[in-house]
Amino acid sequence: MWNVAFAELRKLRRPTLFFGTMGAVVFFSALFSSLLFLLIDSPQGNSDRGRMVGREVLGLATGGVQGFSSVGGFLGIIALCVFAAQTAQEYTYGTLRNLLVRQPGRLRILLGKFIAMKLFALIMIVLSAIVSIGASVILAPGAKVSTDLWFGADGRHAIFTTFINVTVSVIGFGTIGMVLGLLLRSPINAISLGVLWLLIVENLLIAVKNSWEKWLPGAQLQAIASGGAPSGRSAGIEYSHALLVGGIYVAIGATIASFLFVRRDVAN
Amino acid sequence: MSNTAISVSDLSKKYGDQVAVSHATFEVPLGTICGFVGPNGSGKTTTMRMLLGLITPTGGTGEILGESIKHPEKYLPRVGAMIEGPAFYPALSGKENLNVLATLGGFSTDRVQGLLEQVGLGDRAKSKFKTYSLGMKQRLGIAAALLPNPKLLMLDEPTNGLDPEGIQEVRALLRSLANDGTSVFVSSHLLSELELISDYLVMLRKGEVVFTGKMSDLMLSQQPVIIAKGANENDLTLLLAIAQKAGHHATIRDRAVHVQGPAEWAFEFNRAAFNAGITLSQLTPQLPNLEETFFEMTGDK
Questions:
Q1: Which of B122, B66, B60, B114 is nearest to B93 (CA)?
Q2: Rounded CA gap, B81 and A92, in Å?
Q3: How many CB atoms lie within 10 A of CB B143?
Q4: CA atoms of A89 and A93, how far apart (whole Å)
Q5: Pairwise CB contact (< 8 Å): B106 & A3
Q6: Which residue of B has its CA nearest to A4?
């Protein structure tokens, strides 16, 4: 399993993929956090979907991680794409047969790949946290937001819990990406379906009936990233509910995909 | 300890109603080069996939290096394989691709550069796989198969895309591996190549084994062929009729009549042709080569 993980890391560290992904993480983390402070007085709002996050909220102990928390869902989409592509490409390139000849334990292959991609996601999250919080610290004085509480005991706790929440959410999104990759066996199909569902279909369904928000997988994972607190479209989902429902989706998907992966003939 | 590299008995694979491999039974002795031949769709790749644990047989049993094919984890660390062409990550270099596989299999990456040089890719080790020619990709596939320093090497069409020099190099490589004790199980469409290097042969036709044994036994079991050409090409049909009337199996191939029969019959054939007013421009008794035997046994031409 560890050999698989190390082998997978060799693929994940290739410059185009690694720096391309991390570049996107840096850009969007800085953007999400910057807009919170730069548009603080804008009547159109300074957060996602025109929400207003005022100075009094940003001045709280949780103010420093508001941007980081907001970008969590976006990090999830990136993780979904990376996990889906890295899994499905083994089918499209025909490299799965090489992997299975060198490591016939199919669950070990899955677990090893998952560990490596989790590490990749963790690097993304740490980088995003540094950039988001860093941008917030730099821009707060200009927006007349107090940072006194950000790094006190409560502030550090907020950073820690947000980091955990974003990590759980991103790993959840990534797992869904991996499941799609295993089921569809094509990076383009897996990414298209995943992104289309999360960004368009779920939003349309929620627009049709708001209460469906509590039962859709993407909404649950986004709610986990924001700690169940009011943020974006997952305003009405409690953290424990999101954790339970999101966890069930991820567990069922992972079980079905793993079962098929272990049983299916590799004939391509 | 078993003295067979591969041993399968009644091995079968069905996809719904379609039979891909039917009750295949054969053995490949240790330390030999075994050619695996059959027309397209005869079940060669499916058999190799079953032997490598990639697909599950619907019936029968098999052993590789003394271990059941139900437990590929017990023998695959000693097996090198290239199935259905080389498959690698296009954005990684040849060396990085091999490093990935070496890490995966728990082999030292120190071997990688040496293997790349062994297959003639030493100077292109750092080029991306997507920039390789078909022949270079094939060489990389062979290098990957050699990574575990295998006791058994299974190669599916290893000479595809190689130029004549490359084919000769692969032939020499396989022979030297076999001399060092590695068993080689190789499928190829280039039957003349297999004839040159194989000690053993397994021949498939429509999923069934039609011959398994020593190459020399197969060739000796074949009747000699008398190849005859008339001075006038229009005489071929008449020559065919003369041979068939005499009770011999005969076909027209490559603008010549190929007659199965003892070499001594060539004299009578010549006289019968002369009596029929045909002047022969060629009359050659010879042992059939593998290609002719293959066509004869598989009915592929």
A1: B122
A2: 19
A3: 28
A4: 6
A5: yes
A6: B104
Q: What distances in angstroms separate CA A133 from CA A227, A229, B34, one per listed residue?
A: 17, 18, 65
DSSP-based three-state secondary structure for B212: strand
- CB within 8 A of A130, min separation 6: which ones? none
Backbone φ and ψ of A54, nearest 5°: -80, 175
Of B199, B159, B172, which Cα lies nearest the Cα of B34?
A: B199
Ramachandran assignment for A243, one of left (phi > 0), alpha (psi -120 to 50 degrees), beta (any other): alpha
CA distances from A116 to A5, A91, A205 (A): 5, 18, 34
Nearest CA-CA partner of B152 in B132, B131, B181: B181
Nearest by CB: B89 against A93, A101, A266: A93
**CA-closest candidate to residue A72, choices A8, A142, A135, A25:** A25
pLDDT for A173-188, tens place per residue? 999 999 999 999 999 9
The angle formed by the CA atoms of residues B1, B7 and B13, to the nearest 5 degrees, is 145
Kindly report the CA angle at B126 between B121 and B131, in degrees rounded to 5? 80
Write out the H or E segment, with its range, that includes residue A257: helix A239-263
Cβ distance A98 to B55 less than 8 Å, yes or no, reads no
Q: Where are the alpha helices (DSSP H) in chain B?
A: 44-51, 72-75, 94-105, 110-118, 134-146, 164-179, 191-197, 215-221, 236-245, 265-275, 290-298
Sort out which chain A residues have CB atoms less than 8 A from B98's CB and list them: none
**ipTM higher than threshold 0.85:** no
> What pLDDT, in 10s, does the model give residues A221-234?
888 888 775 545 55
Phi, psi of A213 (to 5 degrees): -50, -35
